[in-house]
């Protein structure tokens, strides 16, 4: 995680929530087909969805279907992240004809930016008890299965069935689903109820908006705005004219709100400075980049060599020269846990849906 990303979930939690760093929340299902023979991969993926949807293999050059399914059980809510092989692969997804489950769910397709209008897809609302069929060629999907306990008024759900959640609230909800899926691995057990409540409030506010509901969803909305601001900053770091005013204009938020969102990170300027220092560190530690250290620093907006050196030492505990001499190895570990079939087979999505309260 980059600096401050750990506070994203804090923006979705009630103040004073107890943190228990020794008890991380873990996903309930994690199935990867990549560890199985190519001709068995789709069957593994299909079996994980038995009882929820009927899947038919449609297209693959070599018969393989490298995919990954992760399911997070959040009380009465399920968050499902699916990574699909994308271009050149396809399968047909159909709700089962005699559905035993009636959960409504939001589905956000994951597609290449060139295929998504405006660079972003929008969530659709579906119901497992309603007929639905689609050919899927996406790179993945994020889904949130809602509890069938009046989470959102049935009349509202019926009016939105199979429709995109469009407009500003649709884009807000899409950004939040991406943020939620990425953040769950860093949530502790103590935080889960607050994450569920925040997610509930935001979904209700987006599906059936009202002033009171938008107020209730204030924290998760703030988390999404913060994430958008961070994304904008990191795409414009080389722009020496990047300021808080520019960010406010781009995002359509007030300066005071932007400052409040970045306050836990030390402020907007501090965040921008940190990210630029990280970029210089990457250049300095790259043996293929033989430019003078100051030229690398200058590229990222540091015009004073002495001030840059002091800032670098304060941030990383060594001078830029020392970083170049010893080489900089960042401690970034990406651990992938592959599920193997156990006696009786892995837990399925259907079983997870039956198991939530």
TrEMBL record:
Source superkingdom: Bacteria
Sequence ranges assigned to domain HTH araC/xylS-type in this UniProt record: 227-326
Any one GO molecular-function label of the UniProt entry: DNA-binding transcription factor activity
Keyword tags: DNA-binding, Transcription, Transcription regulation
Gene3D superfamilies, per the entry: Homeodomain-like
Name of the protein: AraC family transcriptional regulator
Organism listed in the record: Rhizobium sullae
